Amino acid sequence: MKHIAIAAALAGLLGIGLFLASAETRPRIEESEKPPTATADDMAVRQTLQARGAYLSRIGNCMGCHTAQGGRPYAGGHRLDTSIGTFVTPNITPDSETGIGHWNEDDLWRALHEGKGRQGAPLYPAFPYTEYTKVTREDSDAIFAYLQSLPPVEQKNPPSEIRFPFNLRPLIYIWRALYFEPGVYRPDAGKKDPWNRGAYLVQGLGHCNACHTSRNPLGASQGGLLGGGQIMGSNWYAPSLTSLQEASTADWPLHDIIQLLKTGLSSRAATAGPMADVVSQSLQHLDEQDAHAMATYLKSLPQSDPRSRGVAPPLTEEVDKLLARGGDIYKTLCEDCHGNLGQGRPNAYPALADNRGVTLASPVNAIRSILYGGYAPVTINNPRPYGMPPFAQILRDEEIALVLSYIRNSWGNRGSLVTAIEVDRSRKGAQ
Ligand code: HEC
Ligand code: HEC
Ligand code: HEC
Questions:
Q1: What is the C-alpha to C-alpha distance for residues 431 and 284, in angstroms, rounded to an integer?
Q2: Which of 94, 210, 264, 411 is least surrounded, with the fewest CB atoms within 10 Å of its CB?
Q3: Could you give phi then psi for residue 382, rounded to 5 degrees?
Q4: What is the pLDDT of residue 307?
Q5: Measured in angstroms, how far is the CA atom of residue 380 from the centroid of ligand 2?
Q6: Which atom of ligand 1 lies closest to the CA of 91?
Q7: Residue 309 has what pLDDT?
Q8: What is the model's pTM?
Q9: What is the pLDDT, as a whole number, of residue 33?
Q10: pLDDT averaged per 10 residues, the chain (length 431)
Q11: Which of 127, 138, 148 to mutate to test the pocket of ligand 1 (most atoms within 8 A of CB)?
């Protein structure tokens, strides 16, 4: 009975979706005529535009999603796991058969601003147009000029594997009606320029909220802007940028925030996993002015989010014994790098004492670090970062839980005890 009701509801939604689809399909605009022969001045203008587009594409990290592992840049084929299936990103080089060679400036604008493909069909929000819609027309045109200047790569990518019923594209119309509002960023008249520029970059091209938010079962962002959440389809938690217990930088000097954005490291934090990728692929390329603007905005974000650190254990004799066993493992396997007081070593091994990444209520990131190891981001300033070895083959779930409970409750840190079940879940969960 329940199934029939759901099926009927879906059929109804689909009907509406198809109706909207036909209503919104626009007639094709014919290819514009080839421009007359370009002069030297035109060429110079074009090159400036392309250079600007190259910079903006990096800040938007278009390449990060549109390049397969070890594949040709921008030729797509990158696999993106989500709760509704796996997306395989399209080729956005100017190849006319397999890429976007036939696209014009209006087409890219429609994609970024309205989230629609060239024929007007709605795109899945796995392409973060809910953020890119804030990008100005001018910046969109620069990105277009850059993409069209790339060498065309002929590469046909396999289709995405999206589960029924989400593979029915017209359903996106309903999602959009509920959760998407197109609109370029509007500067706040009460704020100065670096702040507005920072807000434009963070909320728009930088698409920070694509990860730093919690999502409802339909994948729509919920809760406050940048309020933190588990990243869809992965075992990473992107901490709240509006909570001092998590990743707010309100009490940092600007200089430290800029350093974190450009190098992935600061005296108080080391980025890892997806955030290390964001730094090495995108943020390290921020110019001085934009890095300063982004830091200014991040520092100003409200601390609206009084998230707790999870419930730290009472220090009973039993808990003491448990932590002591974790301490033994720490001495043997971790102390060489992270120090006997969890102090780490500057610019090499992160401190674990007073490190919010260690005490987050959700221990998933710390569990991952210990299971799979990792590297701080590769950047111009830090071309050969120090690495952390993986312990998945060396330590049992229970031992990882013990050592993690120990570092979450030593040197002034306080955090909930971690259980072997939580570690097991991370071993089995998505990468
Ligand atoms: C988080 C991953 C991600 C990022 C970052 C991203 N894209 Fe995409 N993009 C996608 C996915 C997934 C699709 C396919 C959506 C669909 O099938 O509906 C897509 C589709 C597109 C399309 C439509 C292509 C077509 O053939 O219909 C264009 C154009 C595009 N992206 C350009 C860009 C540009 C420009 C940027 C950077 C400003 C960018 N993308 C950044 C994931 C991403
Ligand atoms: C692809 C997902 C993703 C995107 C996009 C992303 N982040 Fe993150 N971010 C994470 C994850 C996961 C973590 C937790 C791991 C870590 O601390 O590095 C994190 C951590 C952080 C931290 C805390 C660093 C620390 O160790 O204390 C800051 C600050 C941050 N992100 C800022 C940003 C900003 C600003 C943007 C946009 C320009 C952004 N992030 C975009 C996933 C993302
Ligand atoms: C060879 C040196 C080395 C050893 C041994 C080592 N680590 Fe690490 N550890 C690192 C480095 C380097 C990083 C930063 C990696 C990154 O940014 O991805 C790190 C990161 C971490 C993090 C994440 C910190 C953060 O800011 O999010 C935790 C937690 C951690 N290590 C715990 C441990 C534990 C527990 C052990 C022992 C079982 C251990 N490490 C052994 C070098 C080491």
A1: 25
A2: 411
A3: -140, 70
A4: 63
A5: 19
A6: 26
A7: 56
A8: 0.91
A9: 52
A10: 40 38 41 65 94 98 97 97 94 98 98 96 96 98 98 98 94 92 97 96 97 87 87 89 92 96 89 95 98 98 72 87 97 98 91 92 94 91 90 97 97 94 84 48
A11: 127
Measured from CB, residues less than 6 Å from any atom of ligand 2 are: 202, 206-208, 210-212, 231, 236, 238-239, 241, 247, 249, 260, 269-275, 278, 283, 298, 356-357, 365
What is the Å distance from ligand 1's center to 90 Cα? 7
Query: What's the confidence (pLDDT) of residue 37?
Result: 73
pLDDT at 269: 85
Q: What is the pLDDT, as a whole number, of residue 140?
A: 98
Token output for 287: 């110019």
Ligand located closest to 293 CA: 2
Ligand 1 close to Cβ of residue 126 (< 6 A): yes
User: For residue 295, how far is its CA from the centre of ligand 2 (angstroms)?
Assistant: 13
Query: What is the signed CA dihedral for 133, 139, 145, 146, rounded to 10 degrees?
Result: -90
Position in ligand 2 atom list of the atom nearest CA 276 = 18
pLDDT at 4: 38
